[in-house]
Amino acid sequence: MTAAARIDELIAIDALLTDEERTWRDRARGFVREHVLPTIADDYEQARFRVELAHELGDGGFLGMHLSGFGCAGAGAVAYGLVCHELEFGDSGVRTFASVQGSLAMSAIRKHGSDEQRWKWLPGMAAGETIGCFALTEPQGGSDPAAMTTTARREGDGWVLDGRKRWIGLASVADVAIVWAKVVDGSDASEPGSSAAAAAPPAAAAAAAGGSAVRGFIVPTSTPGFTATPIAGKLSMRASVQCDVVLDGVRVAADALLPGASGLSGPFSCLNEARYGIVWGALGAARACLEAALDRSVSREVFGRPIGGYQLTQAKVADLVVEYQKGMLLALHLGRLKEAGRLAPAQISTGKLNSVREALRIAHECRTILGGDGITAEFPVMRHAANLESVRTYEGTDEIHQLVIGRALTGLNAF
Questions:
Q1: Dihedral (CA of 164, 169, 172, 176) sign
Q2: What residues make up the domain containing 284?
Q3: Which residues contact 103 (CB under 8 A, 6 or more apart)?
Q4: What is the pLDDT of residues 215-236, one digit of tens each?
Q5: Above 60 in pLDDT, residue 210?
Q6: What is the CATH number of the domain that holds 148?
Q7: How many other C-beta atoms lie within 10 A of the C-beta of residue 198?
Q8: Given the residues 88, 291, 358, 395, the one annotated as active site
Q9: Up-side HSE of residue 127: CA atoms within 13 Å toward CB?
């Protein structure tokens, strides 16, 4: 029996899944074996991002799969989580691609866009024919988006965007960017005559009228003044691409404004979608490490017998699989809450904090079971451990999620 089968048998999570959920999981597992695992070690070493993954993921139906209509699959939250789990078993960069495309860029358009915007962009994005990115984080700090300095001002019938963004996934290969900016100079995002004003809900229009609301814009990356430069020297997420973005007098038409988003609740609603995917995804990386360590524990002999036959090794794998199992059960519980429409932001923070923290612990301990060989590309453990340091940081650091949970428990805001 393989390590994967031993883990699955001990956890027995299949009994808690529907046939449709298992089908999605198995499809994603096959995708990773065919399209990711054969090349990922070399891709990582060469710092190479394979753009063709967009079409391949689109063909699998994985992009924006949790969204409904406009070419999206309309799958359930648990099915989406299981796919994130399998994609990150391959590499965090692959799951990140699906998250940036589906949970961030596509979700922003689906949640906050007009029907015209949805029909224009979402079918191509779901198919992987159009790549999107989500430009929120700025150089001075990602944990305080309220302090963003990127601005949007009205000019004639359109808008002009200026500012800088950093750590923007996919930006250099994207066809379209969802850019978040503060409306300035007394500009009114809901003034009469704007196509956005007609579609904006009253609350959003009122919030925009003050001239400082955060608004989202759909910006083709070919627009003059938009520049994306891949960040070099990364020791993590090497098979993925993250960029510095400069917006220098980027002019867009009035219909570039996302009419349904005003204030930080707009981007945060998308971030929560991505954070939910991480709850499952990080545990996929952990499972890859566990499988490698368990297989090695029965094949590598020291002092005359397999290292898995020693009590210290068995104590390690037992503790690690217990933590993995607890994380999977929490992810499943959160998925069922999400499907019922009852998942709260603090609960998502609980899952993200736990999954990433425990996945890192699992990766580090699995490396010790592999011995010196564990630092080589022959095994995926060091690659996953390095990637998880990025996953720990983006979509909210440990500290941010601790503060979100602490606020829910105490009723006091410590930000």
A1: negative
A2: 267-410
A3: 66, 270, 273, 274, 276, 277
A4: 999 999 999 999 999 999 999 9
A5: no
A6: 2.40.110.10
A7: 11
A8: 395
A9: 10
Q: Is residue 395 annotated as part of the catalytic site, yes or no?
A: yes
Contacts of 29 (CB under 8 A, 6+ apart): 86, 89
Band (pLDDT 50/70/90 cuts) for residue 134 is very high
Same domain, 285 and 376: yes
Residue 379 tokens read as: 């095994």
**Do 313 and 203 share a domain, yes or no?**
no
| Mean pLDDT of the region 320-326 | 96
Q: Which parts of 10-123 are beta strand (E)? A: 68-69, 72-73
Record the tokens describing residue 129, joined without a space: 């024919």
Query: CB–CB of 232/242 below 8 Å?
Result: no
Q: Count of residues for the chain?
A: 415
Q: 242 pairs with which residues across the strands?
A: 169
Element (DSSP H or E) covering residue 388: helix 381-393
159, 208 in Cβ contact below 8 A?
Answer: no
Q: Write the pLDDT tens digit of every residue in 182-198.
A: 999 766 655 433 333 33
Question: Concatenated DSSP letters for 309-372?
Answer: GSHHHHHHHHHHHHHHHHHHHHHHHHHHHHHTT---HHHHHHHHHHHHHHHHHHHHHHHHHHGG
